[in-house]
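Let's study my pick:
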Amino acid sequence: MDVVEILGQNVRHYRQLRGMTQEEVGLSIDMKRSYVSDLERGKRNPSVRALGRLAEALGVEPAALLAENAGD
């Protein structure tokens, strides 16, 4: 599986695990909800800085967002 798709699945997994909406994640990282949606669908390739902000907002290490089978 493509790393961008893995990232998207993991963002969705950790967001839902924490009971957050895409809007809440977007607000916490100063990005639009549509950006979070695009990430979750594998349509965006975030910068390293954006990856770090996402990880912080979701309460995980950045590596966790890139790990295969993180949601299993």
